[in-house]
């Protein structure tokens, strides 16, 4: 769990980056309507949560900076017995003052009046440029004489690149639950009939172990469905002799995990499946071994493309010289995505890949990124050997960059063929 002292340190770091005579505003997420008068389960805006640790809607965090010093103010929803009867208890102003290490707490109803007061004699306003227009309109109503508007999200998202020890603990906890879910899937796939039954078992493990939400919509793709990258219907039959690509990870206390394993329905890989799987796994291991401080993500991408292209030549999926095929981007037909992405509060963490000057940000201790090479061989592709058609394989792990190299945070989730088959056959 992240302590209030850690949140205060984050606010201090951000406050020091703000220009003199400025005001910075972060709003909570707005509840999302699912249908008519029902809503999706509420999830706090990641940047707001990163700076405050507050999970309620109708709230805001404001930084007010003078020539040098700054103050922070939290706005929370007021206590209302009628609203709490329907929607649950609110922390309220009094308890918020006790808990949060800010300079003062106000009720959200006071925001407009207070903001008008805060921006008096200020020159700069910071807010998230993706903010809903209705809120932007409120901010600009009182800031007509402001010299500049700046995107507050860019400052926070750069801070989020480097995970603290407590953040890494939460990611590890999420992964420990995700491990149980994937291992369960390996054990029971042969006994089930449909993808959605496997999905239900995976997400049951998440919730049973305290991860109340998925980090993203689970992908459970059997056979040729794995060749649709964002396949989430999960409504096809589980066919003996086919593979299942499972891309599923839980979110624990707002921190994500992101894992993909490709397993056989029956518990045993065919020779053709094994050939493709081992090729992808070899590439993934090589890319993970390259991770260390100062390495560029683009270098990992380039190497993964070279290795996968050569692997496809060796298997007869591609014909020709590797350099020529890479130049022609022939390999992209079967490996169309990136090698990985930042992960943290969001499964695809909204952290930058480039510096303000446009140069790529190198890896640095504390960064967490996924490594996920894949090969997608559609069943209708007549250009590849028949034995490989309909095979889709991705293998994904979550990697922490360390001072001396890296740590595979998900290394306990088995991925070697012999380990997967052993898991699959352990209950039979």
Walkthrough of the structure:
With 428 residues, this protein is α+β, with helices and mostly antiparallel strands. Helix content is 36%, strand content 18%. It is built from 13 helices and 19 strands. Strands 6-5-4-1-7-8 form a 6-stranded mixed sheet, with helices on both faces. A 3-stranded antiparallel sheet has the order 9-12-13. The chain has a 3-stranded antiparallel sheet with strand order 10-11-14. Strand 2 and strand 3 (38-39) form a beta hairpin. Helix 8 (165-188) packs across helix 9, helix 8 packs across helix 13 and helix 11 (297-315) crosses helix 12 (322-328). It is globular. The mean pLDDT is 96.
> What is the CATH superfamily label of the largest domain?
Creatinase/methionine aminopeptidase superfamily
Strand line-up in the sheet with most strands: 6-5-4-1-7-8
Total number of domains: 2
Q: How many alpha or pi helices?
A: 13
Number of strands: 19
Distance between the termini: 39 Å
CATH class of the largest domain: Alpha Beta
- Stretches with pLDDT under 50, minimum 5 residues: none
Shape: globular
Instruction: Name the average pLDDT.
Output: 96
Helix content: 25-40%
Let me know the largest β-sheet: 6 strands, mixed
């Amino acid at each position: 769990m992240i302590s209030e002292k850690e949140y205060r340190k984050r606010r201090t770091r951000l406050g020091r980056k703000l220009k003199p005579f400025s005001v910075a505003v972060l709003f909570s997420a707005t509840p999302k309507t699912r249908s008519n008068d029902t809503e999706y389960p509420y999830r706090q805006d990641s940047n707001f949560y990163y700076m405050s640790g507050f999970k309620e809607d109708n709230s805001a965090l404001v930084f007010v900076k003078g020539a040098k010093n700054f103050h922070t103010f939290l706005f929370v929803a007021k206590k209302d017995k009628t609203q709490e009867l329907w929607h649950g208890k609110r922390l309220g102003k009094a308890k918020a003052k006790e808990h949060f290490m800010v300079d003062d707490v106000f009720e959200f109803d006071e925001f407009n009046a207070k903001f008008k007061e805060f921006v008096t004699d200020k020159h700069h306003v910071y807010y998230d440029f993706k903010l809903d227009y209705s809120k932007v309109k409120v901010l600009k109503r009182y800031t007509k004489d402001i010299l500049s508007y700046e995107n507050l999200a860019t400052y926070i998202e750069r801070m989020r690149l480097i995970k603290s020890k407590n953040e890494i603990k939460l990611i590890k906890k999420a992964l420990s639950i995700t491990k149980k879910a994937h291992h369960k899937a390996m054990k029971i796939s042969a006994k089930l009939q449909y993808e959605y039954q496997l999905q239900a078992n995976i997400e049951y493990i998440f919730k049973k172990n305290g991860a109340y939400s998925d980090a993203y919509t689970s992908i459970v793709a059997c056979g040729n469905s794995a060749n649709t990258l964002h396949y989430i219907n999960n409504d096809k039959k589980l066919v003996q002799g086919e593979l299942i690509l499972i891309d599923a990870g839980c979110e624990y206390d707002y921190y994500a995990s992101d894992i993909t394993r490709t397993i056989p329905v029956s518990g045993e890989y065919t020779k053709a499946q094994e050939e493709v799987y081992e090729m992808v796994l070899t590439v993934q291991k090589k890319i993970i071994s390259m991770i260390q401080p100062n390495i560029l993500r683009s270098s990992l991408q380039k190497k993964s493309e070279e290795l996968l292209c050569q692997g496809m030549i060796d298997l007869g999926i591609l014909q020709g010289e590797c350099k020529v095929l890479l130049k022609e981007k022939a390999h992209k037909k079967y490996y169309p995505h990136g090698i990985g992405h930042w992960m943290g509060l969001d499964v695809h963490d909204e952290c930058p890949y480039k510096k303000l000057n446009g140069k790529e940000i190198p890896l640095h201790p504390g960064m967490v990124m996924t490594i996920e090479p894949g090969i997608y061989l559609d069943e209708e592709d007549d250009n590849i050997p028949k034995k490989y058609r309909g095979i889709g394989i991705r293998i994904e792990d979550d990697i922490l960059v360390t001072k001396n190299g890296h740590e595979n945070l998900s290394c306990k989730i088995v991925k070697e063929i012999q380990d997967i088959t052993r898991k699959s056959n352990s209950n039979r």
